[in-house]
Amino acid sequence: MKRGFLKSAVVFVLRPGKNAYRADVISYEFTLEAQLSKGTVEVTLLDRKKRQLLKLTPTSPTGKIEPDPKSRYYLRWDFQSATGKYRLHW
């Protein structure tokens, strides 16, 4: 059975504006936690043109990006006969 959930953690910079503070996202850090009894899991973050920005595996579980607020990102999960638990934080 494949189970998991996503939890969000983002770094913000608050900048004073005319009448309020403006928050800018400066980085995302991704962490994959996997407790698999067999198989493999791989998470890939792609940019708008579907180019790989980072790849997470149980042996290389963390990665960091500085997002472009005008861009779009894709998250791809690849499972190869995987059973167990996994969790992705960002």
Order of helices and strands: EEEEEEE
Gyration radius, in Å: 16 Å
Structural class: mainly beta
Which word captures the global form?
elongated
Largest sheet: 7 strands, mixed
Give the tally of β-strands. Answer: 7
**Mean pLDDT across all amino acids:** 80
Residues in helices, as a percent range = under 10%
Could you say how many structural domains there are in total? 1
Poorly predicted segments: 1-12
Q: Which percent range describes the beta-strand content?
A: over 45%
Number of helices: 0
Question: Roughly how many Å apart are the termini?
Answer: 23 Å
Molecular structure report:
- The chain is mostly beta strands.
- The chain has one domain.
- Helix content is 0%, strand content 68%.
- The chain has strands at 2-3, 6-7, 11-16, 21-46, 52-56, 62-65, 74-89.
- Strands 1, 2, 3, 4, 5, 6 and 7 form a 7-stranded mixed beta sheet that branches.
- A hairpin with a 5-residue loop joins strand 4 and strand 5 (52-56).
- The radius of gyration is 16 Å and the shape is elongated.
